[in-house]
Amino acid sequence: MLDFGIAIEPKWRKVSRFKLVASFIFAQVGLANEQVNETEAIIVASGDTTQTSTIIWTRSSTSGPITVELSSEPDFSKIVLTDEEIVTDALVPVKLEITGLSPATQYYYRVTDSDTQTRSGRFRTATDASEFVGLHFGASGDWQQVPPFPTLVNIPERDLEFFIKLGDTIYADLETPALPGKVQARTLEDFRTKQNENISGRFGYNFMNDLFSSTSILAVIDDHELVDNFAGGASPGDSPDAPDVHPEEPPLFTDPVRFVNETLAYKDAMQAFQEYHPIKELVWRTPFEQRLNRKPKLYRYLKYGNDAAVFILDTRSFRDAQLPPIVDPIDPEQVLEFLVSTFNPKRSLDVPNSAGSERICWMPREERSPGSSLWCPNRFRISDRLMPKTASKVMLSNGPAF
C-alpha cells in the first residue's frame, strides 16, 4: 500500500502486531487456503466522493430494507439525511448516491439492515477548487492473496482523503477458497463470489472492511478481474484468454462479437466489479466509436482543491491486441519495425510493456536519454504540458502494464 502525502510516518497497532504477523505467515505457507472466509453481516463504504456528492455502498447478508443515515456529527446527534434501499440478494450490494453536500466537510453515515444490525462509516468531501490545504491519499493494486490483507491495518488512523484501488481487485484466474476447484471464474455468480471473498474477513480480521468504512474509495480494473492480460478492444480470437493462463481451461471469449468488451464474460466481470465498489455505474456514449459505445465508463476526473487533480484511467477495456514482441532486441530492423507499429494512431496504447518503456516514460525532461521520446511520445506530451503550466509536481501511479 502506498500512502502519498507530507510528513506521514507509518503507525501500527502495537496490540495486534503479533497476531498480524502470525496471520501473514500462515497465509505465506499455504495454511490460509484452509481457512473459511468469515462473512461480515454488514459492510459499508463510500466512494467517488466530490466536493458535493458521494456514493454510499452496503453489502448486507440479510435481505430486506436497509436504512441509511447521514450526519455531520460523529454521534449522529444531527441527522442530515435519511433514506432507504432494498437488499434483494445477499451477494448483490446496494448503492445510494447523495448530492447537495458541502465541500471540505467531514460526514458520518450509518446503515441499519432489516435485522437491526448496524455499521457506520465516514468520508470527507473534497476541498473547494480555490483552496490549498494539502492532500494525503493511499493507493494499492494486485490483491492477489486472499484476505485479510494485513498491510491495510493502519489506513483508518491515517485520515486519508481517498484510497485508490488500482486494479486486480480479485484474481478471477486463480483458485481461491471461495471457489474450490475452479481456477477460472466464468459466470456472474463466480465473479460476485470472488469479489465478496476479498471483502470478507479471515483469522478474525477484516481490514478491507476497515478501509471501506474509514476512507472514500476510487477504483478501476486491470486484467485479473477477468483473465490475465486480456485486451478488451481486441477481437475475441486476438486477446489472451483462459488457455493462455491454464492450458487445460476452455476459452472465455467465444461469443460472435467484434470486441472482447462485448463478450458475456467481460460483461459479467464488469458487473460484479461495479457492484462491489462504491462507484457510480456510468457508460460511454460514443456512437461513432463502437469500441467504447455503451461500455462501462470507469474513467474519473476529480479535483481536490488547488492541490491536485486525479485522473482514473481504464487501460484494459479498450486496448488493442498485443504487438508481436521483439525477438532479437539488438536487431535494428526488428526494433524499427516494432517502433513504427506503435505509432499507429488507431492503436489504443502506444507502447506495450514488453518493449521496456515503463521505466522511462515519466522521467523529467533533464533525465531522459537521447531518443527516449520514441518509446512513449503521448506520455511525454502530457507531462510536458502539465508540469510548467498547472502543477508543481505530477505523480502518476499505475498497476502492471502488461
Folded structure, characterized:
By secondary structure, the chain is an alpha+beta fold. It is built from eight helices and 13 strands. The protein has helices at residues 17-28, 155-158, 188-197, 207-214, 242-245, 264-275, 332-342, 377-389, and strands spanning 2-4, 42-47, 54-60, 64-71, 79-87, 94-98, 106-112, 118-124, 137-140, 162-165, 217-219, 300-304, 308-312. The strands form four sheets. The chain has a four-stranded mixed β-sheet, with no helix packed on it. Strand 12 (300-304) and strand 13 form a beta hairpin. Helix 3 (188-197) packs parallel to helix 6 (264-275). The model is unreliable at 1-33, 350-363 and 371-375 (pLDDT under 50).
Summarize the structure.
The protein has 402 residues and is an alpha+beta fold.
Derived from helix and strand composition plus strand pairing, the structural class reads: alpha+beta
Spans where pLDDT lies below 50 across 5 or more residues:
1-33, 350-363, 371-375
**Mean residue pLDDT:** 83
* Count of β-strands: 13
Tell me the span between the first and last alpha carbons.
20 Å
Strand composition percent: 15-25%
Strand order of the largest sheet: 1-9-10-11
Q: Helical region count?
A: 8
**Compute the gyration radius: what is it?**
22 Å
What is the share of helical residues?
10-25%
Give the quaternary arrangement of the chains: single chain
What order do the SSEs take from the amino end to the carboxyl end, as H and E? Answer: EHEEEEEEEEHEHHEHHEEHH
Please outline the major beta sheet. Answer: 4 strands, mixed
